[in-house]
Amino acid sequence: MLSDRGHEIAASGRLVATDALDNRFDNPSEELLWQIISGLTASDNYFVMVQHVPDSSKDGTYIQTAVLPDGRFTVEYQDGDLQHHFHAEVDNVRRAYEVVVAWAFRRPEWREMLAWEPDY
Predict the structure, then answer these.
(1) Is the dihedral of CA 94, 42, 116, 64 positive or negative?
(2) Where are the domains of the chain?
(3) Which of 2, 15, 17, 66 is the most buried (most CB within 10 A)?
(4) How does pLDDT run across 13-55, given as a tens digit for each residue?
(5) CA angle in degrees (0–180, nearest 5) for 75-32-114
(6) How far are the Cα atoms of 12, 70, 115 from residue 76, in angstroms, in the given order?
């Protein structure tokens, strides 16, 4: 169930999740994000991208996670442009989900949840 804080943030803008099969989920709840992320497979539906819309940044602001062939996950975020694109790997789906949800619902701790490495 979404916290009151999650409802406040969702009301101030839309949250959109899109998976590798081009399925689009408008304003997904924490529970739906769990279903999406835990259902990712390395063979076909291997990633999900989450964005706040509208997004007025130059090259996009988003977070995404993808399942790797060995079962680990990569989590990436971009903060407005390609010079602010970072990634980290996690050992399990639960950790990937926790970071994506923290970012999606603008919880301040999301940046400290992983050791982010630049992608540029």
Answers:
(1) negative
(2) 4-118
(3) 17
(4) 799 999 999 999 999 999 999 999 999 999 999 999 999 998 8
(5) 25
(6) 24, 18, 11
